[in-house]
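Sequence and structure are no longer studied apart. As an example, we show below a sequence and the tokens encoding its fold:
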Amino acid sequence: MSRISPFKAFLEENTPDYKPYEEFYKHLHANPELSWGEVETSAAIATRLGGLSPDLQITTGIAGTGLIAVLRNGPGRTVLLRADMDALPVKELTGLEYASKKMAEDSDGSLQPVMHACGHDMHVTALLAAAETLILGRTQWSGTLVCLFQPAEEAGEGAQRMIEDGLYTKHGCPIPDVLLGQHVSFRKAGFTDTRPGLLMAGVDSMKITVYGRGGHASMPHLSVDPTVLASHIVVRLQTIVSREVKPGSLAVVTVTGLHSGKAINVISDHALIELSIRSVDSENRDALINAIKRIALAECSASDSPRDPTFELVSSIPAMHNDPATTDVINRSFSAHFGLQTHNPSCDVVPAAEDFSHLATAIGKPYCFWFFGGHDISDWEKRAEENRLDSVPGLHSPLFAPAIQPTLATGAEALVVAALTMLSGDKNGFEAQG
């Protein structure tokens, strides 16, 4: 049986006033920025970090908008805490007083509404609050703390680009002994969960261009309509998981975009299909991609397409595998601090993907990633009583809106508890023993 949380006294002594952080969160939420455009967000973070301690070594401009803050606090382990910063091209419908009304150009130059529909504003704020807590209590731990703020997680490129830009070389980030990250979820606020080993699926983003023969909308018999062709492909793709994947295996093939034509009276000469493909191992990944290509080629042949389709793999993120030993230690600390009723040490594998692991695998270091709930407690309980939990707005929904508290406190405490556990072990009494 775990003893009473050894972290309680530390947090009671060193946790800052959360009110300024709540206001900072509202500011971030109302002013979201798309991947690679996190200029104002990065500047706001740097300013806030600069006010925490003169001993923080802050490096900005990593892969554009990425930044790190390093606190060297004596001998010991080096622990990296990560938060992502970017938002999504989603129109916010929450009705909050601090709801986003921002518009921005996407990578194609199109003007889009922008929203923090994935909670990255909460990730940033929780890490800043955790950093201040650890700085205030620095006499009680020893080691090196690295706080990393990453751009373009939604694009699946941010972590890798920071590495390629010299994160661990020219930008001077100390090589961490362990890397820690988290993600707010649409679960009940105050709850945390993770699991050792496989935690999240890998994702491949693909674009398929199919070709027809354009013409007048009044004379389809003289054309090869790529919109009809693409529609057949979209429908047929739905059979891959249901008919070609072993039941019980985690696999997802989702068509996220179908674009064809710009004039209402013109049959286009091509159509674009955008796909999100999720799998948990290389064998299933290869099988999914091969099936997609086979179906697209066959449908193009059946429609008498003038040329074969083209396939573009836009991005690829591997499945996330938490280090078992690291996760075991953090699970014990979380269970001791948050309680066995609110921490789940063996959650289900999540079909969503994250590029956080690149930061660790690039240097061969262990990592642990976890989730913390964000949905309003009373609303969750009401929906549960009415058997309507499936109506809780999920990530990437225009209605996604974490309750600021206790979500922020839970996220900040989780980072502090995990950091103290890995920085000091049981040397200073911070590791919760089973």
Observations:
- The chain has a mean pLDDT of 95.
- DSSP finds twelve helices and 18 strands in the chain.
